């Protein structure tokens, strides 16, 4: 038996049971015949994570996944809703996002019991919901898992490209302000990001990313503090702003909030690598604690940012900060550093797919060389795309609009419906009705977000859009 067979893959939260010495079973996720044991299978007892995350560490990861550049777009979102609808809408959107994440985690935990697997990733959970769902849909399990798998990879690779452009743009804007004689192109700044990004993405365990996420959370608080300082200077009366915007603009607000809050790809890896996964759900729980903080910050930033800058607010509120003050410029650099420290956490999502493919190898020879090679190659591709398309935000915002509204809202509601179809849809089918409402909301966000992105792309190509940086980063 090779060393790889003796030790579970630390990166793979969805490792095959046959490679896990702590649990001997011939039952795979594709099996539909469930063996009834006297004692119900407890997946938490069979998880063998070499470097588990603490409860606090898991909260930190979720906060970092949800608190990024998206929060800086909240004042712009409020511009499309008005103050009253903005506050109510932020709360409702936050509750919906929290609920859909809880649906995925709860469904995954229940499917782990049925399939007798210690843990499942997001794509595995989606596939298993069909595999163990209604008989007519069981053969779709493998197909659904594959589609979700590659959708997740495409989504987060795209986000990484946007992150690269964001980091490069922030440094260029700050340095050009201080040293205008340099006038280095954005492409050069993207290339300069290559080595630092390659280095941070060599970290393979979520546990070791906790200090980076914690540091990023501290720095983003500093950025928020500086931004709030400028927001509260000579703050106008809220009565000067629109209370309720046109109904036709509400979908734009909804899509922005959903894109900013969603961290669906990070949720399952975080839950799967917790030392005490039973504390993820429930009250207070890891999820609820993190989302209460997220929703509160989004509401505060959106409200006061819009009150201060009104209709002049830009896609990222840091762009409204003074260009001639070093504190404001420093805040932009700190935000770039925050995105850099968050890069590896987002990179963990596509690497989960890669690690599952690597887990099928019969030998663990050159494991480290292969890991370093793959991680470096992916970052080179990301940077190369960023160099080729330095205004990639326009394309990525379209990809984000399609995938985050779909993966974050539509798919969780769908798999919960499929899984519970023959089990329990609640009294008067309230579970079905509730899930259908969520799916309708996701489709509205999908269409509106895609429409805005396409319009911006057309305007950009026609030369009508001068400032590309007003595009909201998902």
What does this structure look like?
It contains 16 helices and no strands. The protein has 474 residues and is mainly α. It has a single domain, classed as Amino acid/polyamine transporter I. It is globular, with a radius of gyration of 23 Å. Mean pLDDT is 78; it is low at 1-37 and 464-474.
Summarize the structure.
This protein is an all-alpha fold.
Entry keywords:
474 residues; mainly alpha; Amino acid/polyamine transporter I; 16 helices; disordered C terminus
Secondary-structure blueprint of this entry?
Elements: H1 3-6, H2 55-66, H3 74-79, H4 83-115, H5 122-131, H6 141-178, H7 186-192, H8 194-200, H9 206-232, H10 250-261, H11 264-272, H12 286-309, H13 326-358, H14 367-388, H15 393-420, H16 430-462
Helix pairs in contact: 2-9, 2-11, 2-12, 4-5, 4-10, 4-12, 4-15, 5-6, 5-15, 6-7, 6-13, 6-14, 6-15, 7-14, 8-14, 9-12, 9-13, 10-16, 15-16
Mean pLDDT: 78
What is the assigned CATH homologous superfamily?
Answer: Amino acid/polyamine transporter I
**Low-pLDDT ranges:** 1-37, 464-474
Radius of gyration: 23 Å
Question: Which H/E pattern describes the elements?
Answer: HHHHHHHHHHHHHHHH
User: How many DSSP-defined strands?
Assistant: 0
What spatial form do the alpha-carbon principal axes imply?
Answer: globular
Determine the fraction of residues in helical runs and give it as a percent range.
55-70%
Secondary-structure arrangement, i.e. CATH architecture: Up-down Bundle
CA(first)-CA(last) distance: 45 Å
